[in-house]
Structure formats: structure tokens, C-alpha cells
């Protein structure tokens, strides 16, 4: 264990406690350790897509980090919104608006930049706006109907993330029958999609796998397992190493996915209770802030730069991280607040929290 990682889940210094308090958007609790992992996972995916560093002899294992995002999302959203929805303090519509405000603005911006890059590179023309992929992009159903790559390829998971919100609404219902049916349906869809080809083969079945991972995160939050942070850090390290250097086949071998899911679950359940101190806490908060931007911005940079050498990849990452940082402060946060302010006129003052409260509860990542 590194010296600046608190082993008992309690910040060891006053600086760490102050940072933990300052960076706490989830009802007074900050998941800084999970924010750190979120950023690392986004960077692994970005590097993996260069096809120059991470080997793919057993398939694009780096894409398994996307499954981690959904376990994390199920857990974090349960903390941020679960009780508010269950008690009626937040309406279903208010939750969907909050998720739309979080996911859609940057998705739309990076899609526009990606489409412009494709036209600049001569790989697309204006007639592409009539392609089915355009409809999928607008409706957040990327790759679901056509099975083809979306314009900004990683954004398919943003569509899956948004639609998982509807599962979350059902899971947060006080109607036991609806909740039971939702759990059973999600488990069945996950099993059918996972056993067919696994996570790495086709885009459409990935939506079903993502439902299962989201449900797993929701379940972990309900269970509130007390796992020592040491085990969580170990699980996360092994999972990320296997995402970079897989040791068994993944494509067309669904059982190869299972160890990743288990490791991700252990990491999330454990590190949700861990704290970071000092510089580590600041770095983790920064990692959470830029993770969504890194995930969506790296694709247009990748198309234009096509980095292959270590130096090119270093420049590529520097530009992506810089752009993600700028877009977080100058676009993501303002755009989210703008959407929520516009929707405020239609909200129910008795049930739906003020938009600023929704912003405060939402994840810095996804």
C-alpha cells in the first residue's frame, strides 16, 4: 500500500479530510478512489484505441474497462439519486433530465467535432447526415439497430448509459413487483447477451451486458459490503493489468469476461469506502473531472493524429487530457447547468430538487 492511501477508509490528514469534504457531490460522501479509477480506465481505453501500445492478441481487452464504468455507474447513481426517487423527492422526469444534462451536451459536441473531422479527412460528406447512424447518434441508440460503429465510436456506451437510467428508475420504485420484474428482466437479458458472444464482439449485445453490469453496481450499493481497501486496490490493479495484458482469450469466449466483472465488483464495493489524502485526493478529483472528456474527446484526436510511436502517443494523450480539462470547466459544467435551468420551469417544486442540487449530486465522470 502506498503511504498516502488511507487503509481504514478514513482520511489520515486534515488536508485530506478537507479535500474529501470539498469534493463531495454525493450527499456529503466523495468517492475519490473511484474517481481515480474512472480516469485511469478512460485513459486505458484511449491508449488501447491507438492499437500501438496495448496488445490485442486475445482481443481488445482494454474495452473491458467500459464494463467497469457501468458497475461504477450503478453504484454511484444509487447513492446520488436512489433515496430521492424512492421517497418521491425527485420525480422520474427530473432524474431523466438530470442524466440528459450530464450526458448529452458533451456527446453532441464531440459528435459534431468528429463528424467535422471525418469531412476534413475526406472520409465523409454532408450526405452522411441522412445515414441511419445519424439517427442513432441523435437518439442515443448508437450501434443498437445497425450494429455499425457510430461516428464517435466510443459514444455507443453513452447511449447504453442513458438507457440504463430507465432500469434505474424501475429499480428505485417502491413497487416490489416492478422492481422484481426489472431485476429478472435485466438478469435474463444480460445472460443471453453475455453467453452469446461476450462483451467484446458485437455492439448491440453490449447494451444487454451493460444492463447486467449496471444492475451489479446497484446490487453492490444495496449490500454495502465491507471489504478492506487493500483488497479493492489489488482487484483494481489486477483488472487494469489484465485489460492491458490479457492472459486468456476474450473474443467469442464469454467466460473470459467473468474474472473482469468479479474484479471490478470487488474494486467498486471496496474502494467506495476508501479515502485518499493530500495530493492523491486532488489527483483523484482531477481524474474524475476529466474522465468523461477523455473518453469522448480521444476519438476525434485519434482520427486526425493516428499516433503510433511513443512520442506521438504521449502528445496525443497530452492534447486529449488538456482538451478534456478545458471542456469540463468551460463546457460540460455550464452546459449541464443551462439544460437544468431551462427544464426548471417544467419541474414539480414539491418533488423535484432544484437543478443546482441535481448538479451537485451528479458524478464528475459519468
Task: Give the arrangement of secondary structure elements.
Blueprint: H1 14-22, H2 32-48, H3 64-86, H4 92-120, H5 132-138, H6 156-171, H7 176-196, H8 203-223, H9 229-244, H10 258-271, H11 278-305, H12 310-343, H13 355-361
In words, what does this structure look like?
This protein has 366 residues and is an all-alpha fold. It has one domain (30-49, 57-361). The protein has helices at 14-22, 32-48, 64-86, 92-120, 132-138, 156-171, 176-196, 203-223, 229-244, 258-271, 278-305, 310-343, 355-361. Mean pLDDT is 85; it is low at 1-28 and 348-361.
Kindly summarize this structure in a few lines.
Helices cover 66% and strands 0% of the residues.
Provide key terms for this protein.
366 residues, mainly alpha
DSSP strand content: under 5%
- Termini separation comes to 28 Å
The H/E string reads HHHHHHHHHHHHH
Give helix % range: 55-70%
Question: What number of structural domains do the residues give?
Answer: 1
Number of strands: 0
Mean pLDDT: 85
Structural class designation = mainly alpha
As residue ranges, the low-confidence spans are 1-28, 348-361
Continuous helix count = 13
Q: Name the overall outline.
A: globular
Q: Biggest sheet, in brief?
A: none
